[in-house]
Structures are given as C-alpha cells and as structure tokens.
Amino acid sequence: MDRSSLSRSRRFAPAVALAAAAALTLAGCSSSSGGKKSEESADGASAGKATTPRMTIALVTHQSPGDTFWDIVRKGAQAAAAKDNVKLVYSADPSAANQANLVQNAIDQKVDGIAITLAKPDALKDVVAKAKKAGIPVVGLNSGVSDWQKLGLMEFFGQDESVAGEALGKRLNEAGAKSAVCVIQEQGNIGLTQRCDGVKKTFTGKLQTLNVNGTDMPSVKSTITAKLTQDKSIDYVVTLGAPFALTAVQSASDAGSKAKIATFDLNKDLTGAISKGTIEFAVDQQPYLQGYLAVDSLWLYKNNGNYMGGGEQPVLTGPAFVDKSNVDAVAAFAAKGTR
Amino acid sequence: MGMTQHAEPAVTTPPASGPGKVTDGRTSERPLALRLLARPEVGVFLGAVAVWVFFLIAAPPVREGSSMANILYQSSTIGIMALPVALLMIGGEFDLSSGVAVITSALTASMFAFQLTLNVWAGIFVALLVSLAIGFLNGWLVVKTGLPSFLITLGTFLILQGVNLAVTKLVTGNVATDDISNMDGFDQAKKVFASSFEVGGVQIKITIIYWLVFAALATWVLLRTKYGNWIFAVGGNKDSARAVGVPVNFTKISLFMLVGFAAWFVGMHNLFSFNTVQSGEGVGQELIYISAAVIGGCLLTGGAGSAIGPVFGAFMFGMVQQGIVYAGWNPDWFKAFLGVMLLGAVMINLWVSRTATRR
Fold this sequence. Notes:
The complex is a heterodimer.
Chain A: H1 3-28, H2 35-38, E1 55-61, H3 68-83, E2 86-92, H4 96-108, E3 113-117, H5 121-133, E4 138-142, E5 156-158, H6 161-174, E6 179-184, H7 190-202, E7 206-211, H8 217-230, E8 236-239, H9 242-254, E9 260-264, H10 268-276, E10 281-284, H11 287-304, E11 315-316, E12 320-323, H12 327-335
Parallel strand pairs in A: 1-2, 1-3, 3-4, 4-5, 5-11, 6-7, 6-8, 8-9, 9-10
Antiparallel strand pairs in A: 10-12
Helix pairs in contact in A: 3-11, 4-5, 6-7, 8-9, 10-12
Chain B: H1 32-37, H2 40-58, H3 65-90, H4 98-115, H5 120-145, H6 149-172, H7 186-194, E1 196-199, E2 202-205, H8 206-224, H9 226-236, H10 238-243, H11 248-274, H12 285-295, H13 308-327, H14 334-357
Antiparallel strand pairs in B: 1-2
Helix pairs in contact in B: 2-13, 2-14, 3-8, 3-9, 3-11, 3-12, 3-13, 4-5, 4-6, 4-11, 5-6, 5-11, 7-11, 8-9, 9-11, 12-13, 13-14
Region (Disordered) (chain A): 29-49
GO molecular function (chain A): carbohydrate binding
Main location (chain A): other
C-alpha cells in the first residue's frame, strides 16, 4: 500500500494501545460493594392485561422537568395503562397557558379520556369545557381538590395540600416541637405555599418559612445552615421534597444544631434515612396511586360506567405518614421508584 | 489582594494611545491611590467589604467564625465556576451551558460507576472526559461557524438539559441517580472533592481552599504567561490578534474546555457531598456565574477583566444570599433583597472607578 496508510496505522497504534490499556484499567477497578450488581432485579406490579378494546388516554400535568415526584405519578399511570390495554399519551408543562394548549392538543387527537392536574384551575376552565363538548371524559389528579367540581370534572384523585400540612403540624405538636422552619424550594409555588400554611394552622409552636434555591444543592445546604445558626431555638426542619430533607440533615450537623428533620414526599434514599433515624418521618401523598387511579378510572368509566367517589367526593390518596414503625414495608417499593 | 498586580498585559493597551513616555504637564503621574481605585477588582473589593460590614452590623450571627465558613463555602461553589467563566468572558465568549454542564458531569460519573459496578474513580475519570468534550464541542462550534457563542451555548444548554433528563431516565429508570456512597473509592473521592477540616474549632470546607488556589493560578496565568496575553488579545480584537500570530482558535477552544474542567470539578463536589444527583438541577446557575464575573469587573464585550475580581464577585453573591438569612429578614423578599444589594454593590464599584479615573 502507499505510505500514507502505513503512517496512519502507525499513528493509530498508540491510540489502540491507549484504548486497550483504558479497558484493562476499567476492568481492574470494579467496585466490590454497592452498584448495579447488588441491586436486585424485581419488577413492578405487572399482572395480566385486559381484553377490552384498545383506548387512548392523555395525561397532562404541570410537572417541571426532572422532578422525582412526577416521575412516580407517571409510573403509576403507565402501570395502569399496561394492565388496561390503554395507550397513554403523557405531556407536561409548568406554565398554565402551555398546559391548556397540551389539553387542546389531546382533544384534537380525539383521545378517549383526559386526566389533568389543576394547579391553576382558572387557566384550564375553557379547555376543559371544550373537552366535555367533544364528549371526552375528564378526571383530575394531584392539585385542584377544591376546584374540580366547579370545572365539571368527573372524579378527582389527590391530596389536599393544606390538609396534609395540617396533619404534619399536628404531628409536630405530638413530637413536642416548639419552633420549626418550613423550607420552600421554589418561591411562589402555590402547592408548596399551601403546605407551609397548613402546617402553620395547626402547629402550636413558632413556624418560620425559608426560601432556598432548589436547583443548586450546595446553596440549599448553606442556606439551611445559615437559618439554623441564625435561630438556634429551631428544633424541627420541615422540607417539602425528599432530596431537600437529606440535605437538611447535613446542614443541621454543619450548624451544630439538634434540630430534627421531617418532610413531605418520599424517595428511596429517604426511606433509608428514616430507618437509620436521621429523618423522623415523611408525609406521603402516594403519587403512584394518583397516576394509577386516574387512568384506571377512565378505563372503568368507558367499560363499565363507574365513578370513583360517586362523582361527589374526591378520592384522597394522602396524607399517609411513613416513620420508623412502617418504613420497612414501604422501603422495598420505594427502592423500585414506585412509592 | 488586588494591590499586587497592576501590571496590565501589553496587548490590552490600545495601540497608538498617545505620545508614549514623554511627560509634559498634561500627562502627569496620577496618585497611586487613584490609580489603584481605577482598577475594577479594587472597586469590587470595596463593594464586597461594604456588603460584609453591612451584614456584620445587621446580622449578629455573621460575626461567628462558623457562619463565615458557611458563607465562604457557598461563595466557593459559585466562585470555582466563575473563574473560568470570567477567563472565557475576557476571551470574548459566553457559556450558557455551564450550569447544566456541572450536573451532566456529576450524572455521568455516578451512572457510569453504578451501572457497571466500577470503582467510582473510573466514573470520575469518564466524567472528566465528557466535560472536556462538551467544552471542546462548544469551542469548536463557535470558532468553526463564527456564530455568537451566546447562540451556540444556548443550544448546548438546551441539549444538555434534555440529555441529562432523558439519559438518566433511560439508564436508571428514575430521574435521580442511585446512591453510590457504599461503593469502592467513594470515601477517598469524598476526601478529595468534598471533605472539610477544622481550624480553631471552625469546620472549613475544602472547596474554599481549591477556590483560592485556582484563583491564584488563574491570576498568574492571566498576568504572567503568554497564554494569558492571548486571552486578552482574542477578547480585545480577534482579527488583530490573529494578525500578530495569536492562535485564536486554540485559545478560544481551550477556554471553553477550561469551563468544562471546572464544571467537572464542581460536579464531583456535588456528587460526593450529596451521594446522588437530581437530573433537573443546575438550570439558572449559569447566570449566577456570569453575574459574579461581571460584578468582578469582567467586560461583557471581552478584552478586559481579572481573575481576582470574580473571587470578590462570588463572595458578594454568597454573602448577600446567606446574609439575608442570618439577618432573619422576611423570606418573601429574598430575591428582591438579593437584586437590590447586587445592584448597589455594582453601583459602588462603578462610582469608585469613575471617581478614581476622573481627571
């Protein structure tokens, strides 16, 4: 061959050697603990499949991208869809106007049912009316417990954020807390504000709120540390999302504070922290159940004309408390990312 | 501090700016104090001192050593990224993808090590390669297309945001990575990236040390090396820089890769201090890094700035953000306070340098 190909192969040789060396190095440094290998492969609740005709259901939420919570809602919806022979179309946008457009999109697709979250009910009023006019049944989930009937939704699955907050406030009283801080990771979010307000309503001690920048964990850590240093009387930190609770544990130790941690919502690392005792308890609104029931209810309505809650009452999925006494039962499911 | 380096690199002095060294009445030496004040990093230094003194008075907890350590920790995680972002800005380019790139790096390391059950150092190494590759891609696209880096990195910002989410979901089945704290090499890596040590009863986070070391290094490179001159040259005027033989493409691409390196570093800190990473984090951080650089006296148009200025810029951010909490002010006003304090600080900075340069 010509000389250029020779010189090219010569130039390649070191690269190949380097790649081989890298592969060998990698093979030599496998971890003896943790990692994928130690994780058991147990699948979710996958039972049989319905023989009813194929139908399409749109699930439109106000999720912001990458939120662990909404991931679980979606998994629940997918599980129900798989069982019920339903094609699930999932879409989400945190802005109310965009969410309304997505619902319109579902109407245009002529889906057989729509499940929506009512974070901003007024913005969705018109488009829900359009869906009803087009003969598409609409159910609500997660947010909008006080508005779903006004908008003419058939059923609702979720937790009243204020009620959940009130339940947590009572729990703090039982624990003997005197001064607590409620950590809001997204300033101006209605649901989060309602949770803190709910806690304030029933908690007999002093409750302060603290806004943190939820997209930057080091900043969350410093800010909670700062608050615990500023007010040394705080004996309970209440976070509104599982990852922030785990960070608050570090903050409390940095600040040399004896404050205990409680939180809304669960994830698998959090169940571990509860069994270790670094986090006292969590309020779970069972997001999986919300997604699952929303899809399943539309299937039931289509195939058997059923209403959950009889069309009058919301179906409440929370608040359910997870603490040391029941964490073991929940942990196995949380590890799969479904609880 | 900023006092030791008032040697401006030769390339930044505008060509044919006057009659050179000839002194007559009109170009008499101005007093040293005024010449110092005219430097942007001195202005921001005074702004930072003003903010610090303000919170010392307004918020008693700030007077404790541990609070200062906490403020410096927050500043350091901003500051380590603000440094290369500042150098890149001096070199005339922006990087809007820097905030999510931090998370990309942390996700890569965590998922690579976990999924293949490898020692975490393997993941750390792969993440470094990925981060440098992202930097290279940004730089290469900017020099090859000649498009503004604002557009190119806006593109990569969106791409990385989507990739972070989609790949994490694809690989782990969740939107956060698995806990790697029980894997081989984790404790060692935690010592390197996320440990703390005690000085006089106060826990100091190691990132503060890295921050100051990197700042010193960046200052030296900027003021004492040929590469530093190249940075000023390509940011000042790309074409004349090329005409006098400055490797413009190399300089720009390497600056983007430097941002990639810092993103890797901060990403590793995030991973080893919090054990897991949420795939949606990091959005909006890029603006904080850029703000720290701008408050630190880096010109938005490139060609001027320093590495010491952004250190004070990052400090000012950390100080205001935590100071408001230490002061126990109404948290609803938090963002507004932050904005007002930062504007105020920049105004002081501007006023100081104007007063000092007035004839």
